[in-house]
Design a protein that fits this description.
- By secondary structure, the chain is of the alpha+beta class.
- It folds into two domains: about 170 residues; about 140 residues, Zinc/RING finger domain, C3HC4 (zinc finger) (Herpes Virus-1, 2-Layer Sandwich).
- Helix content is about 55%, strand content about 5%.
- It has twelve helices and seven strands.
- The protein has a four-stranded antiparallel β-sheet, covered by helices on one side. Strands 6-5-7 form a three-stranded antiparallel β-sheet.
- A hairpin with a 5-residue loop joins strand 5 and strand 6.
- Helix 11 packs across helix 12.
- The protein is globular and about 75 Å long.
- The protein starts with a helix and ends with a helix.
- The relative contact order is 0.09.
- About 5% of the residues have low confidence.
- Pathway: Protein modification; protein ubiquitination.
- Its EC number is 2.3.2.27.
- Pfam families: zf-RING_UBOX.
Length: about 325
């Protein structure tokens, strides 16, 4: 079965109600846009003729570069695809956030979501998490397929360039921190008798025994993703992790140190000019995501390590608070 048929079957399958309010890639419509592009077809044929005449790599690259744009469908194709990808990422983030708040509510929402959780059993939560992962996976595959088809029709590399643009815009679907949170969420559900955990839950697995802590996600079409759970600042497994807007993962204390704010003040007080320690992008702290499910997974799987880090951060928090208020007192009384 072709992917187009598989994708349409997915959209109109058992998840129809679940997908009712969710955006998705208009795969068939985008394919029609490519079919209408007669100019592109002629360019593709001429490109193939040149490639058959000379198979050397340099001439193939010249051919690829010669027809990199198409005035007929470029504007419609890429603008629509970018909008759809952005809507999908937003829908996925919103649904994942709502689901995970039912499992690990915080602050004033703890009571409200606790009541809501009474009317929704754990298996239903797990099923919804699995459907969200399938939703983001199918749309990611659809985007990859349609971009590959675009490059094939136009004999160009614009499809690959578009992927880079998606990454720069932080709408790369399979690199969303919420996908990592859903993975931890499913692993947290996979508790066995005696307090032990199995090494995999659905498509997710987590390895804390190797030199690097890694969460692995295996998807359809042999797509395999690895999420490194090591903080790039302290070089240990993340504790109380936060994902910045750019997608990089850090311990809260390490991120606060990088942003030049105190732990008890939080990342939201960071200056808009503060940069990510890895990619040097500015303004990535204001919308940082607290990875509560991942922290819960680490708390259960690495009990001794988690307790040690908790004691260390608590001591540092108290120290910073004392120094801060001592300094404020000195300013207030004038010495």
């Amino acid at each position: 079965m072709k992917f187009g048929e598989t994708f349409m079957e997915y959209l109109h399958g058992e998840q129809d109600k679940f997908l009712h309010k969710c955006s998705h890639v208009e795969y068939k419509r985008l394919k029609k846009v490519l079919k209408k592009c007669r100019t592109c077809k002629s360019l593709s044929e001429s490109c193939k003729t040149e490639q058959q005449g000379d198979k050397e790599e340099e001439e193939e690259e010249d051919c690829m570069c010669e027809y990199q744009s198409c005035p007929v469908c470029d504007q419609m194709f890429f603008s629509e695809l970018m909008k759809e990808a952005s809507d999908i990422a937003g829908c996925f983030s919103s649904r994942a956030r709502s689901l995970l708040q039912l499992h690990v509510p915080t602050g004033k929402l703890r009571f409200l979501f606790g009541v809501r959780r009474c009317f929704k059993d754990e298996q239903a939560l797990k099923d919804e998490g699995s459907m969200l992962i399938e939703y983001i996976t199918m749309n990611e595959i659809a985007i990859r397929k349609i971009l590959k088809k675009y490059d094939k029709v136009h004999c160009s590399v614009n499809g690959k360039n578009f992927k880079s643009k998606m990454k720069a815009e932080h709408i790369e679907l399979l690199r969303s921190p919420w996908l990592m949170e859903l993975g931890a969420f499913l692993l947290n559900f996979n508790k066995l008798d005696g307090g032990e955990f199995s090494e995999s839950s659905g498509h997710f697995s987590c390895d804390f025994n190797a030199s690097l802590s890694v969460m692995t996600l295996t998807l359809a079409n042999s797509i395999k993703l690895e999420f490194d759970l090591t903080c790039a600042i302290c070089l240990d497994t993340v504790y109380n992790p936060y994902a910045l807007s750019c997608g990089h993962l850090f311990c809260k204390s390490c991120a606060c140190s990088a942003a030049s704010v105190l732990i008890f003040q939080g990342l939201k007080t960071a200056s808009p000019d503060s940069k990510c320690p890895i990619c040097r992008e500015v303004g990535v702290y204001a919308n940082a995501i607290h990875m509560l499910e991942l922290d819960l997974l680490l708390k259960k799987r690495l009990k001794e390590y988690w307790k040690e880090r908790m004691s260390g951060e608590r001591a540092e928090r108290v120290k910073q608070s004392k120094e801060y208020w001592d300094l404020q007192t000195q300013y207030a009384i004038g010495y």
